[in-house]
Design a protein that fits this description.
alpha/beta, seven-stranded parallel sheet, six-stranded parallel sheet, 13 strands, Rossmann fold, 41% helix
Length: 379
C-alpha cells in the first residue's frame, strides 16, 4: 500500500513508518524533523519529506519564547504545518495522521486520493482528557486543539489508540468500537536490554517523565511518604508541581533516551501514577529492562502485561488513590526481595511482543483487516 504518515515531531509514528516500510509498504513520512534526525532512527531518506527548512524559524521562536507567546506560536505552527502537508501530499491509499495536528490534510487526502484515514491518538478522548485534568486542578486540554481533535474524529475512517482504556474513553462518547484500532506501543529492545541491579542496597522506586499533576506525581509523593526505607528517584523535566525536598528523594534532569537504561538498572520497581494517558512508553522501557511496573488503570500498563503474558509484570491500581498505590508498591517490593540483585533481570521469558517490529506487524494486520471491513460495507 501507499501509506502517508503525517506528523510534527517524531512521536511513535516515525517508528511506525520505519516498520511499515520494512514490511514492504510504500511509505512517505511528512514532518518538521531534520532528515538526519529521522534517518538516525532508521527511516530511509527516500521515505521522508522534511519541512524543517520552511518551519525552522517558527520552531525556534516557539522554543525560545516565554510560555504564553510560545503557545500562540505553536498554534501558528500547527496551522502552517497542516496547510503545507495538505499542499505537498503525494498520492496515497492510506493516510496516518497525528490527531489534533491535521484537518486540511485529512480533507486533501480524502478529496484528492480517496484515501482511508487513520487518526493516531496517543491519549484518551480529548473530552475525557480535558475533564480529568480539570478535575485534578490543572488547566485542561489546549482549547485550540479540542475542536481540531473532534473534527479529526469525525473525518477519520479509523482511530488508532495504544490501550483498551483509551479505546473505552471513545466508546463512552459514542464513537463506534468498529472505528477503533487498539495496538500497544513498542520500544527499542536493543536500547533497553535486561539490566543487572547496580544501585544502592536501599529499595528504590523510579518514575521517568514530567513531574506533573497529569502524571499523578502528587499521588505518588503521598504514597511514597508512607513507605519506610524506600528511595524515590525521578528522571525528567518539572511541570506544574514543585519537587519535594524530602530525604530519600532524588531528582535527575532529563537525559538522552540512550542513557535511561542506567537509571532502570539502579531501581527495583517502576511506578506510574498517571491520572490519564494512552500508554506511556517508559513502561515498556522499564519492563524490557527487567523492572516490574506498578501503574494506574489509565496508563495502558495492563495491555503490555497481556502482550507479555506475565501477570506479575504489571500491577494495576485505581488513579487518585495513594493508599492503594502504596500498598501495591510495598507488596511488589516485598515479593521481589533481593532477587533482582543477582544476574540480568527479566519480567517475562519473551520480550519480543514489545518490540517496534511486533508493533508494526500488529499494525499491518489491523490495517489490512480494517480496510477489508471498510470495503465490505455497502456503498
Amino acid at each position: 500500500m501507499r501509506v502517508a504518515v503525517v506528523t510534527g515531531g517524531r512521536f511513535h509514528v516515525l517508528d511506525l513508518a520505519r516498520e511499515l516500510h520494512a514490511l514492504g509498504h510504500d511509505v512517505t513520512f511528512y514532518s518538521y524533523l531534520p532528515r538526519t534526525r529521522a534517518t538516525a532512527f532508521g527511516l530511509p531518506a527516500q521515505c521522508q519529506v522534511s519541512l524543517f527548512p520552511v518551519l525552522a524559524p517558527v520552531l525556534a521562536a516557539e522554543r525560545f519564547a516565554p510560555a504564553t507567546p510560545a503557545r500562540s506560536i505553536s498554534h501558528v505552527q500547527m496551522r502552517l504545518l497542516d496547510r503545507l502537508v495538505a499542499r505537498l501530499l503525494r498520492p496515497c491509499d492510506v493516510l496516518v495522521a497525528m490527531a489534533g495536528l491535521f484537518v486540511a490534510t485529512l480533507t486533501a487526502a480524502r478529496k484528492k486520493y480517496a484515501a482511508t484515514i487513520v487518526l493516531e491518538r496517543g491519549s484518551r478522548h480529548i473530552v475525557s482528557q480535558d475533564e480529568i485534568l480539570r478535575a485534578a486542578g490543572g488547566d485542561g486540554a489546549d482549547a485550540f486543539s479540542i475542536p481540531r481533535e473532534l473534527a479529526g474524529y469525525e473525518m477519520s475512517d479509523f482511530i488508532s489508540v495504544p490501550s483498551r482504556q483509551a479505546a473505552d474513553s471513545f466508546v463512552e462518547r459514542a464513537v463506534p468500537s468498529r472505528k477503533l484500532l487498539v495496538n500497544p506501543y513498542g520500544c527499542d529492545l536493543s536500547m533497553f536490554p535486561p539490566t543487572v541491579r547496580t544501585g544502592a542496597p536501599q529499595r528504590t522506586i523510579l518514575f521517568v517523565g514530567l513531574w506533573s499533576r497529569r502524571k499523578g506525581c502528587d499521588v505518588l509523593l503521598t504514597a511514597w511518604r508512607t513507605l519506610a526505607g524506600v528511595r524515590l528517584v525521578h528522571v525528567g523535566p518539572v511541570g506544574d508541581l514543585p519537587l519535594p525536598s524530602d530525604v530519600g528523594f532524588t531528582h535527575v534532569d532529563p537525559v538522552p533516551q540512550q542513557m535511561l537504561s542506567r537509571y532502570y538498572a539502579e531501581a527495583d520497581l517502576f511506578v506510574l501514577a498517571s491520572r490519564e494517558e494512552g500508554l506511556a512508553l517508559v513502561q515498556a522501557q522499564a519492563l524490557a529492562s527487567g523492572l516490574p511496573v506498578v501503574c494506574t488503570s489509565r496508563t495502558g500498563g495492563v495491555d503490555l502485561r497481556d502482550l507479555l503474558g506475565c501477570d506479575e509484570a504489571v500491577t494495576e491500581v485505581p488513579p487518585d488513590d495513594p493508599e492503594k498505590l502504596a500498598t501495591a508498591i510495598r507488596r511488589v517490593l516485598d515479593r521481589i526481595g533481593t532477587a533482582s540483585a543477582h544476574g540480568p533481570r527479566k519480567v517475562a521469558a519473551d520480550l519480543s511482543p514489545m518490540s517496534w517490529r511486533a508493533y508494526g506487524e500488529r499494525y499491518d494486520r489491523l490495517l489490512r483487516a480494517a480496510l477489508a471491513s471498510r470495503s465490505a460495507l455497502p456503498q
